[in-house]
Amino acid sequence: MTTEPDSFPRRHARTQRFTLGAPRAFTVAPDGSRVAFLRSGSGTDRANSLWVMDLPEGAERLAADPGTLLGGASEELSTEERARRERSREGGAGIVGYATDTAVELAAFALSGRLFTAELRAGTTRELRVPGPVIDPRPAPDGRHVAYVAEGALRVVDTEGGNDRALAEPEPAAGPGRVTYGLAEFIAAEEMGRSRGFWWAPDGRRLLVARVDDTPVQRWWIADPARPEREPLNIAYPAAGTPNADVRLFVVGLEGERTEVAWDRARYPYLARVHWSAAGAPLLLVQARDQHSQLILAVDPDSGATRMVHADEDPSWLELFAGVPCWSPSGQLVRIADEGGARVLAVGERPLTSGQLQLRAVLDVGPDDVLVSASAGAEAPEPETGEVHVYRVNELGLERVSQEPGVHSAVRAGGVTVLVSATPGRPGTRVQVLRDGKPAATVRSYAEDPGLSPRVTLTQGGARRIPCAVLMPRDYHGDAPLPVLMDPYGGPHGQRVLAAHNAHLTSQWFADQGFAVVVADGRGTPGRSPAWEKAVRDDLADVVLQDQVDALQALAGEFPLDLGRVAIRGWSFGGYLAALAVLRRPDVFHAAVVGAPVTDLRLYDTHYQERYLGHPDERPEVYRRNSVIDDAGLVDPAGPHRPMMIIHGLADDNVVVAHSLRLTSALLAAGRPHEVLPLSGVTHMTPQETVAENLLRLQLDFLRRALPHQGT
């Protein structure tokens, strides 16, 4: 297959979806004097540097350059660091993360497993010679020490580089597992949004440290068949219905003294959130395994005792949110809760928002207000399809900070707000620095212009008003029906219908090849209402599939869609949905590209799968009903056999390749023709340039071969 250096697929792959060169990971100094952030040097440069913008002038300066610090040597990553990046979907290189002290004067970061600090005011950088490979270094709030993890031990070193010592060291495990300190376990990082395993006290004298024993977790082997001389990778994978890692929490002092934090770990084994600020006692959010109940606990760091601050229950499940729980500066509990059919912000016991907003995250808590991100809720007077905005909320009401239609987020401190905005009419993101709500500076982006603008219509389809994006070829001016490509994710935590330019680039490229592309966010996807998200409880398959069908049929009355030629493509949950589509509804869907699908639901992880379907040993019929390979339609000889291309990375440690292998075995046993594309050395992210480029081309080739020969 030939490639074109300047083609969209090649540029899309080379620029990592046109994200390279865009500034990210902002931290604002509490006095409002500077903003730290990461950015690579161009739209094709993967290596991020640490930058500082000085205010009020708005001048940018380089604080740490990975090429200089490594002396031109290539970057080396440990197995743990590779796993951390896979969990966070980090495809960049160089400085991919950093942490600062409270004053945002000292930053610490790991580079090629080595520990570096940068004095952000002075502009100097130094390496601290410590045991490695270093993971997740974090300065103490007072800037006097840096804590980090190396070889499963939590260590601390003085900022000047002396007195390095282990505060908690790995312990011998009773079996094939290991006991580590300061690291997040697999499901915390993959499913809970908790990537950290230690937290400094506000006074910098001690830390809360997670102890993870993964001995109970079953061991899986991830092999590379293309490299038979290499040993398979042994991973601890907690598949649905199997034991999780044992997670405990300790208060650890700088001299190594420790006190265990006590709570009912048998009933609430999931440590989902930890918050420690000067506004109150340390806070924990712990969940029951079924995620129907959770507690917010305050910790006495001297004794390790806990007291309940708040309790929640939900018959479906309890969602986790970024930024909460936490204390307000006045000592009130700040949380996001599903109450009265709405997802609201609560301060103390009082909800401050209503069903007009669907809360997404808490961004900052100030003395006078709370900064949040939210979408228009079910009770909003007008729909805002695909929009996410930033709001200031207090007891007097709310004020929208972001004005233009789009997808917005923010970071705030010291009267300065960094507003990150993506809009439908502008490529990439724009980063504005606001002081007291007024524009003060703009952070430059080096991201490449994609060179195409999506011809997208954001709308709603069907009786349930399903959010949809419809993309037509940019050179299409007729009314002749076009073959349809459904391009969904379609499941929990994955919103694809967004009021943002770059969100639709790949869909537009497919549209320009002669398709009408439809993206539908049915029930189960975020941003609408708690009931909308939780409609998939016990029914991940039929509900999400029905909404794709309903959206397609409703849009056919408004757009020139050829319902006799309908394909569907998807990755991860979208791959699961694509397989379901051609197997269960071949009357509607005529071909499918099935990327990294979850097919045997018992092979996916505990926290995700049990949230929606319960425990497989207690509810085997629910798992069977939602499975792809147990689907009775799979072996129905009377049903039409629709073409299917199955794609899977052999190095995937999230949705392991066994899912696709079991699907292809079931299809073969049923006599169903299909194609399989194994990707050697590729994980769930497919970051490799040539792989990412040719995946688009191969999918297009398959769709062109599959659709013309299909009829209704």
From TrEMBL:
A Gene Ontology molecular function term of the record: serine-type endopeptidase activity
BP GO annotations: proteolysis
Alphabetical list of SUPFAM superfamilies matching this protein: alpha/beta-Hydrolases (SSF53474), DPP6 N-terminal domain-like (SSF82171)
A family per Pfam: Peptidase_S9
Keywords: Hydrolase, Protease
InterPro entries: AB_hydrolase_fold, Pept_S9_AS, Peptidase_S9_cat, Peptidase_S9A, Peptidase_S9B_N, Serine_Prot_S9B/DPPIV
Compositionally biased region (Basic and acidic residues): 79-89
Keyword Protease found: yes
Domain Peptidase S9 prolyl oligopeptidase catalytic: 506-707
Dipeptidylpeptidase IV N-terminal domain: residues covered: 112-408
UniProt region (Disordered), positions on chain: 65-89
Top-level lineage group: Bacteria
PROSITE patterns recorded: PRO_ENDOPEP_SER
Name recorded for this polypeptide: Peptidase
Classification lineage: Bacteria, Bacillati, Actinomycetota, Actinomycetes, Kitasatosporales
